[in-house]
Specification:
534 residues, Rossmann fold, OB fold (Dihydrolipoamide Acetyltransferase, E2P), five-stranded mixed barrel, alpha/beta, five-stranded parallel beta sheet
Length: 534
């Protein structure tokens, strides 16, 4: 029964094992594509492997194929492959039975020009650079000690763990992570929105605005990092008001955001090191500065104390300070009395010299001259006023004759001018009268002064003026000799006399009765005798 069942479904197909089928495919592919030339762009190149072999891919705008260069062939190449370079590879196509993949084993490699993606990057770089987005003058310095750091990266990758670990080791601060896709469709737009979102934070909002931003991603091929070459990402980085660190890929990877950022970090870990200082180093530096400050203050205070002690030693004592002023005071006090006496003598001599020039005849001459001058001026002023009045009247008369035929308006003006001239004439007469009154008052004051200084007023009080035979005043007895003729002037006239020797009058004079003037002098109503004014 079982034999019948086994023979019911016979097959003419040859049965292969998996290894036999894979080997057959490998031989078929190698036979059909023994030597081929392929043009494509190098992608995913990271340099030779530790074994010396190089693994990467060749691609165009629709497909890609894995490629390998063995160690021996790699050492014979005339140039080294680079990421994004468009090349022409010559080799054979083979398969890898272990994973059912095919690849090209490259034997020779020739450059075919820059790749399409690299050409696009260069064109975009040139255009954005012309707009000034990569200008070094726009780049800002990072804050030395930020309190909040914003990170734009994938929340599930190793990058965010490396950044957080490095920040916590160096200087723990508050970190805000904005999760985004770092590759694939829509990743560039998410990164740009994250940068703009951090910049939209308000300083006093519920979330603190970061002091510095880090845009990070791990290494990858040019296609993997393509989101960070997006124009929107570059513009968002250039427009950021917060200082931005670009940490995309490894040190050999370059994207356009690296040119627009304020600082480019070789790795995400390097970005964390740039963002925060080392806390232990700051504490050590602060301790050193504190110690230096304390030592400097102590040294400064010691120097000041020494300076004060030196100044105290140099300062004189109170007695030394007051010695010279005391001496000057004593000298001034001792010379004060003599100085007052000399000053009084000098003032008296000056007064006597001035009084000698104040003779009544000189004052009378000056008053006469002033009176004559004033009279002449009054006469000239009166004549001048008369001439001005006559001239004005003649002008007015001529004006009346000339303007007799003019209109009434001109006649009215003429009348007003005539009234004005009459007012001026009255004012002039009034001013002259006032001037004459003031001059007469001044003259009267000077005359009263002359009368008060005249020696005749002194004669009325009982004094007399003695003159010699040449009519010169005699002020001392030694100026006269016995038998000299003199004249004695009293307030009511002069009398003649002859001088004698000795101080006693002759006997006839002693027996003569007293004169009426002496009796009057003894009258209580008469003022008592007065001493010399000088």
């Amino acid at each position: 029964m079982s034999n019948v069942f086994e023979n019911d479904s016979p097959s003419n197909l040859t049965e292969y094992s998996v290894s036999e089928l894979s080997g057959s495919i490998k031989r078929t592919v190698e036979t059909a594509f023994d030597q081929v030339r392929v043009r494509g762009e190098i992608s995913g190149y990271r340099g030779p492997h530790s074994s010396g072999h190089a693994y990467f891919s060749l691609k165009d705008d629709r497909s890609r194929i894995d490629a390998v260069i063995w160690k021996g062939t790699f050492s014979r190449l005339r140039f080294r492959p680079e990421e994004g370079m468009e090349v022409i590879a010559t080799g054979k196509v083979t398969t890898f039975p272990g994973s059912s993949k095919y690849q090209i084993v490259i034997e020779t490699l020739e450059p075919a020009g820059a790749g399409a993606l690299m050409a696009l990057i260069e064109e975009r770089k040139r255009r954005l650079g012309a707009e000034g987005l990569f200008d070094p003058a726009r780049k800002r310095r990072l804050p030395f000690m930020p309190s909040v750091i914003g990170v734009v990266t994938s929340p599930t990758g190793a990058v965010i763990r490396d950044i957080l670990h490095r920040i916590s080791d160096r200087f723990p601060v508050h970190v805000i992570v904005w999760p985004v896709k770092v590759q694939g469709e829509g990743s560039g737009e998410e990164v740009a929105n994250a940068i703009r979102g951090f910049n939209s934070f308000q300083p006093g909002g519920p979330l603190r605005r970061p002091d510095v931003l880090i845009v990070a991603r791990g290494g990858g091929s040019l296609e993997d990092l393509w989101s960070f070459n997006d124009e929107s990402v570059v513009r968002a980085a250039a427009e950021s008001a917060i200082p931005l660190i670009a940490a995309v890929g490894h040190e050999t990877d370059w994207t356009l955001i690296d040119y627009a950022a304020d600082v480019r970090a070789p790795t995400p870990t390097g970005a964390a090191e740039m963002a925060v200082p080392v806390r232990a180093e700051l504490e050590a530096q602060l301790s050193g500065l504190s110690a230096r400050l304390h030592g400097g203050v102590n040294r400064h205070m010691d120097q000041r104390r020494q300076s004060v002690r030196a100044l105290v030693r140099a300062l004189p004592s109170l007695d030394q300070l007051l010695a010279l002023p005391r001496r000057r005071f004593d000298e001034a006090a001792s010379g004060l009395g003599r100085g007052l006496e000399l000053n009084t003598i000098n003032k008296r001599r000056s007064f006597e010299r001035t009084a000698a020039h104040l003779r009544p005849d000189v004052l009378a001459n000056r008053i006469a001259e002033r009176r004559q001058m004033l009279t002449e001026r009054i006469t000239r002023a009166e004549r001048t006023v008369e001439r001005l009045l006559d001239r004005s009247k003649s002008r007015v008369g001529r004006a009346d004759a000339v303007f007799a035929s003019l209109p009434a308006r001109l006649k009215t003006q003429t009348s007003r001018m005539r009234d004005h001239i009459a007012n001026l004439s009255r004012h002039a007469e009034t001013a002259i009268r006032h001037k004459l009154t003031r001059v007469r008052g001044d003259l009267s004051a000077q005359e009263r002064m002359l009368q008060s200084l005249s020696y005749k007023n002194v004669l009325k009080r009982g004094y007399a003026v003695i003159r010699d035979d040449e009519n010169r005043p005699v002020s001392q007895a030694a100026m006269l000799q016995a038998g000299a003729g003199i004249s004695i002037e009293f307030s009511d006239g002069r009398i003649g006399a002859i001088t004698t020797e000795g101080g006693e009058p002759p006997a006839s004079a002693r027996k003569r009765p007293a004169r009426t003037t002496e009796t009057k002098a003894a009258d209580p109503a008469t003022p008592p005798k007065q001493g010399s004014l000088f």
